[in-house]
Amino acid sequence: MDLSNLTPAKGSVKDKKRIGRGQGSGYGGTSTKGHKGQQSRSGYKRRVGFEGGQMPLFRRVPKFGFKNINRIEYQGVNISSLQKLAETFKVSEINRQVLMEHGLASKNDLIKILGNGELKAKLEVTAHAFSKSAKEAIEAQGGTAIKI
User: Fold this and answer.
1) Cα–Cα distance list, 98 to 12, 91, 93, 104 (Å)
2) pLDDT of residue 1
3) Which end of the chain is more exposed for a tag (fewer CB within 10 A), N or C?
4) Where do runs of H (alpha helix) occur along 3-124?
5) DSSP codes of every residue in 40-91
């Protein structure tokens, strides 16, 4: 037994249906496409969302809201996460690089420090934005909050 004589199990592989090869095949004539109509013609493609002439869902459902083109997306990091970093890795300076190394932010993220949790360590934190409560918590422990 080697790779050159491997075959699928008997009965597991069916022959391809060969349509349009004469009446004797059973699939001649209309080639399984029925009689006339748009779908029997060559080049037919159904439009995405087409529902057979019924008003399609994307036109039945009303539009609402808008996308603010000036929105700035921040990756939020709570001070509880900073406290955990300070305890486990003995870090006193937290910046983008440190957060990336520990999986709290990605390369292109804008980072915002949020005030959820409790901070006990004195830290020097560098980020793009700080919530009011986070900034107060960092400075209450004698640390500094540096905005990039």
Assistant:
1) 55, 9, 8, 9
2) 74
3) N
4) 57-60, 79-89, 96-101
5) GSTT--PPTT--TTSPPHHHHSPP-----TT---EEEEEHHHHHHHHHHH--
CA 47 – CA 38 distance, rounded (Å):
13
Residues counted in the chain:
148
8 by Cβ neighbours in 10 Å (0-12 / 13-18 / 19+) ranks as exposed
- The Cα 78–Cα 116 span in angstroms is 5
What's residue 85's pLDDT?
A: 93
Beta carbons within 10 angstroms of residue 45's beta carbon: 6
Cα–Cα dist 31/18, whole Å: 9
The position carrying tokens 């699928």 is 8
Residue with tokens 């921040």: 74
| Residue 26 confidence (pLDDT) | 92
Q: Which two tokens stand for residue 70?
A: 């000036």
Per-residue confidence (pLDDT) for residue 107, from 0 to 100: 93
- What span, in angstroms and rounded, lies between the C-alpha atoms of 143 and 85? 15
Is 25:18 a contact under the CB 8 Å cutoff? yes
C-alpha of 90 from chain center: 33
